[in-house]
Predict the 3D structure of the following.
Amino acid sequence: MQAGARINGAGLLFHIMARRKKSRDPWKRKIIGTLLAVLVSSFLYGGGMHIKLPEPKLSGGQSIEETLLKRRSVRIFSDAPIDIRDAAQLLWAGQGTTLGGRYRTAPSAGALFPLEIFLVAGNITGLRPGIYRYLPGSHGLEQVLEGDERNGLCEASLGQDPVRLAPAVIVIASAYERNAKKYRGRGIRYADMEAGHSAQNICLQAVSLDLGTVVIGAFDDDRVKKIVKMKTGELPLYVIPVGRPKQ
Ligand SMILES: Cc1cc2nc3c(=O)[nH]c(=O)nc-3n(C[C@H](O)[C@H](O)[C@H](O)COP(=O)(O)O)c2cc1C
């Protein structure tokens, strides 16, 4: 089995319903919280396979100043795979939870969190090629489809080679209706700004992992949406290839 525990939604429901008393043990509470998040996500996103990601590292050896100085767009990648731990770290940087799950690594207007992050896996050690939706609440992945979709995504990105060459591609999308109720038309602007925050987090996290990224905004929205199998109301904003820079 690849990539940690895979959990089935019905089994989870049984497990949770079987519990009567609220546990005082913080670890048990954490596990139950994760299981609940998985269950909710399986209802929200159609009950696909859930993959628990390795926990993110919360400290590193490089200063923020050094990281900012080193960030550069990288468009040529080596053939080397990236590890699932690196992919998990990048996803957490982009939209992972903080403060016990109440907030995210990127700011969000009204804490309404309109962004959705997808991982297009091509050559990731410990994860099968496929398309996955990142689930911040459980720090997991929901499999959207199996198979290497990088070539199609490259064509949809106007033939930009980094999308085909990178071992992984992160796609940031917005579900604008999440903040439209509160902010109406201005919610679009806010969600677009949030995608910038999230993308910058990913770029800086990549530098600290000795990985390279480029943020791509030139692509055919409808084709990217179709390849990634986004839901109605979700719109792709950024396509971000990530890999080891070719020396
Ligand atoms: C909104 C936006 C869209 C971009 N779209 C593309 C793109 O489609 N293809 C690409 O190769 N680079 C794209 N870039 C990256 C820029 O070309 C790059 O940031 C710029 O050349 C400055 O280089 P640097 O990132 O190394 O500082 C985009 C950057 C931004 C902010």
In short: The first helix runs from residue 9 to 18. The chain has two domains: 6-52, 64-243. The first strand starts at residue 6 and ends at 7.
